[in-house]
């Protein structure tokens, strides 16, 4: 496949929290891969900033160590390290800022972006400092991470703090799922084909299942996770975005506000979730369960959630959406299953069997699409029907070069530099998602809800199966 890498314009990117887990584990490797692909110009500058007592050389050494696994695949590491600098800055203190401002002064119309890779509690102070040091001009862009707040009130506060210094068009709120190639493919599948869209409504779709299953646990993020849980960590953002892309009306153009307006309408049309339509779970295993991982023997935080919701609009009224996500499940598998209704009448009689079509969109791993279709079972013995998969793997079908398939952070950071907000969340969208999530969490708290235990390596708590069975349905299997 022919390379389509188009270099971006020269830029300055300051990463506050440049020594942290996200910067070292995701942002800098992503930048290195874009450098290696030839997308980052040699006069770009990437400045890490944090409180640690480092200088340019020791920061480069730190980053070089972290990039060692990447370098195995080749690439000009020294060249990349050459565009890196370090500034010692404490967001809460005045020192270091004048030096940073001087370094960035006189850049003309170069893109200047500030990545807030620090705790959200520092966003307001950071925005104020940028303003105070003349670094919040009209062309400045700021990048903020999820979690964007922990409820509607805190999200509003963050939005207000940022809005005091930046226009909405300057704020890039990351949900890294939107940067995944296969998530963008949801839109290509829906709106690039005539085949699916006419059937994409409650007349033909029985229900939709969205599964994001992980095998990993909470890793080293126990303290954060135990305060968040699967609802805040995954459902309010990643699963919500998937739901929006599957359910939204076609935007007139693939452009930031057109797309985000349509997503917002979906979120605002979501019904409140009834308490008996939610199952919360917590994985357990002798000595290695969730509670041990987070160091909280009485934790009531969920590491698994399954729920049923409805979208009250003309397209989807009557079609339930089932969402589930969890840690330490049997396999890593993110997949959306569009479960079509049975054909209205079988001309082959009851003995031939009835089969409904299923469109499975696999987001990760083994990205691709499978359409389950019904055919005649070969051989004599009358007309018996069987399901067979029409299976397409993106990797096999496209055989693209690595640099043509950037990972989520590569794509999103380059979009920041290009000034394209299409794959970033708008402030009102995040607030609407919290407005739907808050009453669900408040309900658990009021009832003192305790998550159901499930085995490490299983498909989740048995009650999640019951949620489906009560509706005469069942989950599709969680397969790698
Ligand atoms: P870490 O705790 O690993 O890193 C925090 C960084 O901020 C460090 O570089 C730290 O360096 C710096 N820092 C802390 N306080 C200050 C301060 N007062 N002034 C300047 N720098 C400061 O956090 P993560 O990297 O994991 O997370 C960063 C953000 O990204 C958080 O909002 C998190 O929720 C979010 N996020 C993280 C993900 C991940 O994979 N880690 C995934 C998704 C979102 P020093 O102590 O030297 O100042
Ligand atoms: C993060 C969550 O946003 O997404 C993690 O905080 C989760 O808990 C991760 O593991 C999943 O991302 P991915 O890209 O591995 O599916």
Automatic annotation (TrEMBL):
Keyword tags = Carbohydrate metabolism, Glucose metabolism, NADP, Oxidoreductase
Q: Which transformation does this protein catalyse, written as a reaction?
A: D-glucose 6-phosphate + NADP(+) = 6-phospho-D-glucono-1,5-lactone + NADPH + H(+)
Annotated catalytic residues: 238
Question: What PROSITE patterns is this protein classified in?
Answer: G6P_DEHYDROGENASE
The pathway entry for this protein reads as: Carbohydrate degradation; pentose phosphate pathway; D-ribulose 5-phosphate from D-glucose 6-phosphate (oxidative stage): step 1/3
- Positions binding NADP(+) in this chain are 51, 90-91, 146
Q: Which positions bind substrate?
A: 176, 180, 214, 233, 327
Q: Which GO terms describe its molecular function?
A: glucose-6-phosphate dehydrogenase activity
Q: Which residues form the Glucose-6-phosphate dehydrogenase NAD-binding domain?
A: 14-185
Q: Where is the Glucose-6-phosphate dehydrogenase C-terminal domain?
A: 187-476
This entry's Enzyme Commission designation comes to 1.1.1.49
Write out the similarity annotation: Belongs to the glucose-6-phosphate dehydrogenase family.
- What's this chain's function? Catalyzes the oxidation of glucose 6-phosphate to 6-phosphogluconolactone.
Q: What is this protein called?
A: Glucose-6-phosphate 1-dehydrogenase
Q: Please give the organism.
A: Lutimaribacter marinistellae
Q: What is the lineage of its organism?
A: Bacteria, Pseudomonadati, Pseudomonadota, Alphaproteobacteria, Rhodobacterales
> Which gene does this sequence derive from?
zwf
């Amino acid at each position: 496949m022919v390379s389509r890498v188009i270099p971006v314009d020269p830029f300055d990117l300051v990463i506050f929290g440049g020594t942290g887990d996200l910067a070292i584990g995701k942002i800098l490797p992503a930048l290195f891969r874009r450098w290696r692909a030839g997308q980052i110009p040699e006069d770009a500058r990437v400045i890490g900033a944090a409180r640690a007592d480092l200088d340019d050389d020791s920061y480069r050494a730190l980053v070089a160590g972290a990039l060692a696994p990447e370098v195995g695949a080749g690439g000009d590491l020294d060249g990349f390290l050459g565009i890196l600098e370090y500034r010692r800055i404490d967001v809460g203190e005045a020192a270091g800022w004048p030096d940073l401002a001087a370094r960035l002064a006189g850049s003309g119309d170069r893109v200047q972006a500030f990545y807030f890779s620090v705790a959200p509690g520092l966003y307001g102070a950071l925005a104020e400092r940028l303003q105070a040091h003349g670094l919040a001009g009209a062309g400045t862009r700021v990048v903020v991470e999820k979690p964007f707040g922990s409820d509607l009130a805190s999200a509003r506060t963050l939005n207000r703090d940022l809005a005091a210094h930046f226009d909405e068009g300057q704020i890039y709120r990351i949900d890294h799922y939107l940067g995944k190639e296969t998530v963008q493919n949801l839109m290509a599948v829906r709106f690039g084909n005539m085949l699916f869209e006419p059937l994409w409504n409650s007349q033909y779709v029985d229900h939709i299942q969205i599964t994001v299953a992980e095998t990993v646990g909470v890793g080293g993020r126990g303290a954060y996770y135990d305060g968040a849980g699967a609802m805040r960590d995954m459902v309010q953002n990643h699963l919500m975005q998937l739901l929006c892309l599957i359910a939204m009306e076609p935007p007139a153009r693939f452009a930031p506000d057109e797309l985000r307006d349509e997503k917002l309408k979906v979120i605002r049309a979501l019904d409140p979730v009834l308490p008996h339509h939610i199952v919360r779970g917590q994985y357990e295993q002798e000595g290695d369960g969730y509670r041990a991982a987070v160091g909280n023997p009485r934790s009531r935080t969920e590491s698994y959630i399954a729920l049923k919701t409805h979208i009250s609009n003309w397209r989807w009224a009557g079609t339930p959406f089932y969402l589930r996500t969890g840690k330490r499940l049997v396999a890593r598998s993110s997949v959306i299953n569009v479960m079509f209704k049975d054909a209205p009448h079988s001309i082959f009689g009851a003995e031939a069997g009835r089969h409904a079509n299923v469109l499975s969109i696999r987001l990760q791993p083994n990205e691709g699409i499978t359409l389950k279709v019904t055919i005649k079972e070969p051989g004599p013995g009358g007309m018996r029907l069987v399901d067979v998969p029409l299976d397409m793997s993106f990797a096999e079908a496209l055989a693209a070069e690595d640099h043509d398939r950037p990972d989520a952070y590569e794509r999103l950071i380059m979009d920041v530099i290009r000034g394209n907000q299409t794959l970033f969340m708008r402030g009102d969208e995040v607030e609407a998602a919290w407005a739907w999530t808050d009453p669900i969490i408040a309900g658990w708290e009021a009832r003192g809800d305790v998550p159901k235990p499930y085995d490490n390596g299983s498909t989740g708590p048995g009650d999640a199966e019951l949620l489906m069975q009560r509706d005469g349905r069942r989950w599709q299997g969680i397969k790698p």
